[in-house]
Structures are given as C-alpha cells and as structure tokens.
Amino acid sequence: MNAVVIGIGNRFRCDDGLGPAVAERAGASVRPGVRVVPEVTECAALLEAWAGASLAVVVDAAVGGRPGRVRRWSLDELTGPVVLSSHDLDLQQTFELGRALGCAPEKVVVVTVGAVRTGHGEGLSPAVAAALPEAVRLVETVLAEHAQETADQVS
Amino acid sequence: MTGPARSAPGTARTIRVGALTRVEGEGALHVELRDGVPEVVELNIYEPPRFFEAFLRGRAYTEPPDLTARICGICPVAYQVSACNAIESLCGVNLDPDLMALRRLLYCGEWIHSHALHIYMLHAPDFLGAPDIITVAREHRREVERGLALKKAGNRLMELVGGRSIHPINVRVGGFYSVPSRADMALMAEQLRAALDDALATVSWVAGFDFPDLRVDHEMLALTGERYAIEDGAIARSAGPGFGVDRFSEHVRETQVPHSTALHATLDGRPHLTGPLARYTLNHHQLSPLAREAARAAGLGTECRNPFRSIIVRAVEVVYAVEEALRILDEYQPPRRPFVDLEPRAGVGHGVSEAPRGLLYHRYEIDSDGLVTGATIVPPTSQNQAAIEGDLGKVVLAGAGLDDGELTSLCERAIRNYDPCISCATHFLTLTVRRR
Fold this sequence. Notes:
The complex is a heterodimer of chains A (155) and B (436). Chain A is an alpha/beta fold.
C-alpha cells in the first residue's frame, strides 16, 4: 500500500485546523506504507504531498453543514469547489492538474467535519473537537479498506 | 461569460464578463461602444473594501508589518517591507547591511514565487489558447512542471527566511525575530541552483509566444537604487526627475470612482504605470549580465512598452531574483543581531518597496505613545487601474471588428498583462460591453 493522509487547513483559523489535527492523530498510529502530511494550504504543496500515492485521504473542515458531522466523499460527490486558498486552484482542479502532470493519486477520498467557526484564532470548537475520534476512525477505516483492496489485487 | 453576439455596425453593442478569471480577487469589466468606438471602459472592482487603513489606527507601531501582510497571500512580504521601511524611517533607524541583505533575500523569494505563479498558471494560458493551467499541462507538461518547481523554490526561500511562505511570521520592525544558520542557507543555495536553469528556460519559452501589437505611452514609475530596486529605493519616473518618498502623496493622488471599490491613483493627474514594465524601462541597466543577455535574446530592448510582453519581463526578473538570492546566500554570514532595537518616535513615516506588481507605498502617523493615528497604503494595482482602462480602450478600438467572445477574451488578456491583485486594490472582474 502507498497511501497518504493529508490535512488541509490552517491551525490558526480555529476549526480550519481540523484537517491538520485529524491527520496528526491518524499519523500517531500510522501503518506501513502510509505517509502523513499534516498541514497543506496551497496546490503546489498538495501536488507534492500526494505524488505517487495510490490513495490520498484528504481531511478538511466543511463550512455550512451540521457542526461536528463527519462525512466521507469521493471527489465526484463534491458539488462545490474545495478551496485551498483564495489565490489558488481548488482541490478538484489540483487533482486534474496532477492527472495532466502524471502525479495524481489513483484514488482520492475526502473526509470532512462540519465546522463552527473559521475566523482567526487557535483551538477547535467543542463540537468539532468532540468529532475528532470519529474522524480519525473514518480515516483508519478508509486506509484499512484500501489495504484490503491492495492485498486482494496482489493475491 | 459573454453577452449577446456581435450586433450589426452602427448599432449599440454590449458585452458582459461577470467575473474575471485568472486574476487575484473579484472584479468585472464594463465596456460601451457606439459605432465601434469605445465610449465607456470601466474596470469594476466590487470586492468589498477591507478597511485596513482604518483598523490600523490605535495599533502599536510594531504591528503594521504583521497586520498589513494579511492584505495579500501572494505578496505579503511587500507589505511587511514597505511597512518596516516607513516605521524605521520615522524612528531614524538604518538596518545593518546584513539585515538589509536578508530582507532582500526574502523579497527575492516572493518575486520568484509570485512571478512564477503569474507566468505559468495565470498568464501563459492566454498565449497558448487554453482556458487554464490544467489544459496547458496536458500539452506542455515539462514546462508546467518547471513552473511549479520555480514557484516551489521561491516558497522555500520564503519559508527559510520568513518562517512560512504565506504571511511570513519572522519579519519585525528593525529586522527579524531569528536569522537562519549558515548550514541552512548553504542547503537552500544548493536547491536554488537548479532554479536558475529553470528561470532561463522560462525566458526562452515565453519569448516564443505571439504578442498582440500594443504600445502604451503612460509615464513609468518605479524605485531605483544601487542595485535593481526590490526592497527599497528612491522614486524615479520616466518623464522628469524623481521625488522624495515623503512627497509621494503630492504626486500620486488617489480618488474614488463610482464604479470601483478600489481607489484610482494618478501621477500628477495622469495615468501612470508601475510594475515590471516600469522597473525594466527605468532600471534594465542594473540587471545582472545573465538577465540582460536573456532579455536581449528574448527580443527586449532598452524599454518595454507593450504590456502583452510583460510576461517576458517577469521571466527576466525571475532570472535576476534567483541570481540575487544565490549571491546573498553565498555571501551569507549570520548577522551579529537579528534586529535593530528601535524606540517609537512621534511623526509621519513613509516607506516604499517594489512589490511583484509594482511600487507599494505606506505612510504611518505615529503618536508619542507609539500608536498609529493614521495609515495610508497605495498598492500597485490601484495605481495601474487608470492605465489598464486606457489600454482596454485601445484594445477595444483595435478589436471592434471581433465578435463579442473574441473581444471579451482580448480584454481579459489586456487586464491580466498587469497581474492585477484585486485583493490588494480593495483593500477587482465581470465584463460588460454595450455597443450602440
């Protein structure tokens, strides 16, 4: 398995730090063949982070949903752009650019947690902090599924 | 994106662009033509005002570099440096030469990163008939990889000196909070040497593009110094002698126009240009021999007055910035102190530097308690707006025979020539063309 867990966000923007927090926790018990890149905020760094991976699990805070709600998405299921930076390509565009450059992962799974506040400041809202274990478990489930799929293909 | 198809000659014609793409921030363009002649050309910057100048009041004299850096995620160093220059000037402090060199190094990182972003991701698609960088990458993979590598080199330089590439945290009035080790700088130099080849290849690549004919006669405004001006300098202009930084507001006046949330600035009442074209035209003799040779081989003369060719000038400036960075890295000895301590002084301070998009002016009034009582920030995009509208008038006149889609595309290209940063200026595009 060659997977990467990527945290999208900025820990100095309150709940936007959710992605880095989940990626770090998932990284604490990381399995062989899994890399963790905890804090990505722009497309060039994302291209570099997932280059060569068979699976990229991208964790990000979601604005507009129920606070603390943990959800799993494929890139195709995302109806709006996942903004990395107001000055940059979004997640879907970065994936397309990666494909054109031959460095996109084979599969992308996006894990989101509903955010409460994303203004300046440190620390997660209680509802978001409470959802961290569930988000970490979901990341681990996605990784385990991918490990099984990879093993099945080999056998 | 576009409005009605081209109407018959002699009638009103309207074209609309709701939101300009591949520019920083939000803006629109409104053009009205009667019998093929543009009557109204307005760049509508509708990004909300950001009130930086207002909320700086009451803050400590140490805070403007960190606060104003937030005006832009692409050129935060420009804001930090112009702010530092203004406050240090007011406090009567000159930075140690090695700290000035470190500041210039950080700024080189921003030039490399910002110019590479604009050349490859925002501007090159215009010359390759592509809607975006993704389409360009499918046909020009090696070139796009090169652009990303250059951008990354600039980012790494900013991380090393500034602590991080977006909104650096290591800059303070008087210098830096900490300075890099020699070993880290030597490692950075090794990483940057490959970027010089990438930069030279970029000049050759963009020199091969087709450039529409356009010559602009706007006056040019740029800093000039002992070296090709980046982090500081004296104000120079193409028509006459320059003026002191403290007299900037007497010459460059900002006015509110109804169609834009960004102020328009003029130089002695007339549109002027700041940015790569101005810097190259006024200071090309100060480029390094390698950058000058790259410019000559790319077909640039002693001045550049075709905004479409600004992409070549940016590429030449990347060559220069990489060389400058390597020079500073190779000569680096850790400064004996990371910053010069300074006490606040009541009065007015003025500071300038060459942001990637042009001359950036800051003015601060500080009271005896060291608190800011007044702030004025004049970014390059505000200064270039009137010139952009002037260029658009010429482009629309020359392209009046084009259908609306083609004319819209040409207008957007004319705007992107300036790499406008709308976020900075509101601190800007939707195109509407009306033909009568």
